[in-house]
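ARCHIVE CARD
Drawer: 12
Card no.: 0347
Subject: one protein chain, sequence and derived structure
Cross-reference: see card 0346
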Amino acid sequence: MHTPQKYEARWFKESDLDAYIEGLNRTLYYDYSERLFRWKFGENPSTLGFPTIAVVEYTPTGLPVAFNSFLPMEVRRGDDLFTVLQGCDGFVDEAHRRQGLFQMTLNFMVGEMVGRSPEILVGFNLVEAAGAARKAGSAYAHDVDRCSLERSAFKSLRDHAGVTLEPIDHATLNGLYEEWAARSPLFHVHRSLPYIHWYNRNPLRRVQTYAVYLSGGYAGYIVVDEVEEGGQLILTIEDYRPGMLGGDLLRGIVARLGAANPDAAVMDIYTQRGDSLEPDLGVLGFSVMPWFKVIMKALNVAVQEEGQVRRKGHTLSDTSNWHLTGGDIY
C-alpha cells in the first residue's frame, strides 16, 4: 500500500511519551506506565542507547499517530552471542488505520538498522497483526499456544509426586542456566546475570525463581511470575530448563505452585505448537488456545530466502532450533 506523503516516520522522542502511554492503555494494556517504559527501554542491558520505537507523525498536525516498538535482546547458542530486535508494544490510532502505517514503521526500522548490531527481527504477533508483518516482508516461523488451567482445577491437585521447590537467588539461577546453556545447540535469549536482574525488576510482575527437586534429586529450575490482569491474578511458568517439564515432574510443579499461590485465578504456560509438553498439560486439564504467530526477518548478517531466515549455516526460522518460553515474549 502506498503511504500518503502526509505521514513521516522517525524515532521516538521524549515528547511522545504521553501519547505512547495513553495509546497503549487504550489498545493493549491495563496499566502501562512511565515506570514500565523506563524499565523496558532505558534499563534493558541490551539497549542500543536510545528508545528503539518507530513513530509515524501526521505532518499536518505534527502529532504521533502510530508507534511500533523494537526491544533489543541478546541471543546465545553455545559461545555465539548476537543481538536481535523483538517487535513488541505498538498501535495505530483508529482514525489513521488502513494507511499502511504499520508497514511504514517496519520499513523505517529496517532502513535505520543497516550496519548496526541487530541481526534479525523476531515478533510474537497476535493473529490479527501477523498478516501485516508478513506483508512487510517477515517470514512465518511457528505458532505459540497459551495453555491455561483454572484455579478450580489446579487447587484440587494434591499429589506433589515427590517434587519440592526451593527458592533461589539470581546468581544461583544464572549458574543453573549456565550448566545447560554452555553446551546446548539451541538458540535462546541469553540469561546473563544482568539480564536476570533486569527481568526481575519488571514493575508489572512479581517474579519467583525456584530450583526443582524430584525425590530429593535436582531436576531443573523454573521461573514463575504473577501479574494482575482485569482484576485477576495470573500465575505463569515463564522459564525452565529445556526438556525438563512433563509427567510426574510437571504434575508436582503445578500442585506445589497452586498451593504456594492461593490467590492465583489462572495458571498459564506458553508452548510451541505441537510441543511434546502439550499432551501432558492436557492430562492435567489445561486448555490450549492459539495465541501468537512467531515471525522473523533478516536485518544484518542473517539472510532471508525462500521463506526462511538463515544465519551462519543455521535456519533461525525453524523454531525447533530454539528454546522459546513465555518469559521471552515482551
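Annotation on reverse: The mean pLDDT is 93. The CA atoms of residues 44 and 198 lie 7 Å apart.
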